[in-house]
Amino acid sequence: MKADTSKSNGGPMSPAIYEHIADYIIQTLIKEDVNAFAEAKLLSELLVYKLPSVVHELMYRTVSAEAEKLKKDSDINLLKEIGGITTQKRMHFRSQDQYNSFVALFFDAVEKHPGMLEHVDDEEKFEKFMIYCIHEFRQKLDDFATEIVQERSKLVRDNRLYIHHKNMTDVPEIPTYADFIAERIEGLAA
């Protein structure tokens, strides 16, 4: 299994981080289409294998983009940007470990590129910046999963696979969620 190194401890990042992020993506897939549950184990293995090459770059790009916004306008109300205090309180995770995985990725990005924090001048602003970046990162993962579900659901509808015909001999082959993810995961960080 591929593991990236973290500057802070010099060692590889725990594979558990990728497992928790994979679980988050799978949760989103299942929330959008319960049929994705049948592929959950395969999806988990695939995502844990593929995520190390993608999520660090995606988090870096997310933090970098948000740091640029903050640099251009230092008066941005980060709390308001994510929808206010109620959205911040609603931003929940399945477990503390899942939350810690997102935080670890955020810290990995800012440790490797400390210049992104030059416009974050106090602890409160740093915390809001972190929450905002994690929120944006999750939004990108949600959008990725939702797009895959919509595309696969459209194929199922277009090929009328939801109708079970007893004598249906010519059934078109529809890619699985794992096929879609394997094909598109690299583009997530692009």
Total domain count: 1
Largest sheet: none
User: Whole-number average pLDDT?
Assistant: 83
Sheet-strand content, in percent, reads: under 5%
| Helical coverage, percent range | 55-70%
Poorly predicted tracts of residues: 1-11
Number of strands: 0
Radius of gyration based on Cα positions: 19 Å
User: Given the C-alpha coordinates, what overall shape results?
Assistant: elongated
First CA to last CA: what distance? 22 Å
Please write the string of helix (H) and strand (E) elements. HHHHHHHH
Estimated structural class:
mainly alpha
**Helix tally?**
8
Characterize this entry briefly.
The chain has one domain. It has 190 residues and is mainly α. The N terminus is likely disordered.
Describe how the helices and strands are arranged.
Elements: H1 15-32, H2 40-50, H3 55-72, H4 78-81, H5 84-90, H6 96-112, H7 123-158, H8 177-184
Helix pairs in contact: 1-2, 1-6, 1-7, 2-8, 3-6, 3-7
